[in-house]
Amino acid sequence: MITLKPEIIFENEFFKLSNTLLAGFITVLILTAFSLFFKDKLKEEPSKIQVIIETIFESIYNFWYNLTEIKNLKIFAFCFAFFIYILLSNWLGIFPGFGSVYLKHHEEKIHLLRTAYSDLNMTLALSFISVVGINLIALFKQGFHYLKKFLNPIGILELVSEFSKIISFSFRLFGNILAGEILILIINFILPLLAPLPFMFLEIFVGFVQALIFFTLTSIFLKVALSEH
To answer: What is the pLDDT of residue 189?
Structure first.
């Protein structure tokens, strides 16, 4: 059963750990481990795997540069982090066995893991980081000049616009990922053998598209924030 509210798998008087937050931590650990492992394997004469990874990375960077016209790897890394983190989080959610482990908590049977972004709290947090990060980068690059747009008579509209980006980001990602989980659950219940496979491939594609949309919109909003006008 999937609920809108994430399930708490551990809690004390100071801290609560939900199954979606645990899934988010696992995603971070996987990305960190892969980065450290791949960093040690980099060579001037690349292996086939290194060539493939570098080709993918370069293709994404070229797409980003054509979109934003910004030549800055640090700013690209900020945007790319959203893409790879959301993508892996979404794909882990449909990995066989990911949501099949249960544990007993307060006499209740709950999922140990659940797709991170089927939780509105997680999407709101990620959207908040994106929008605040965009404004901080623009402030760092443009200084006080950037703050002028908030200090004029229509500055309140600019603040409302920034807040609406957080809401739009979070509900778009949350709605699509939660809907995918519900769809697969229903199909598994009605036709539990081979029928869910096409829908799982569909969710792989949807997970990629949602990560790409978040990455693209973050990049576009950042380009607008860094523009002179």
So the answer is: 65
Distances from the Cα of 152 to the Cα of 59, 144, 161, 204, 225, angstroms? 40, 13, 15, 45, 16
The one-character DSSP state at 191 is: S
Contact yes or no for 125/97 (Cβ under 8 A): no
Mean pLDDT to the nearest integer, 171-186? 73
User: How wide is the angle at C-alpha 127 spanned by C-alphas 24 and 8, nearest 5°?
Assistant: 40
pLDDT recorded at residue 215: 92
Confidence of residue 105 (pLDDT cuts 50, 70, 90): low
Whole-prediction pTM: 0.83
- The phi and psi torsions of 227 (rounded to 5 degrees) equal -75, 155
Tokens of 175: 């709605």
CA-to-CA distance for 137 and 160, rounded, in angstroms?
19
Which among 76, 33, 31 has a CA at the least distance from the CA of 57? 76
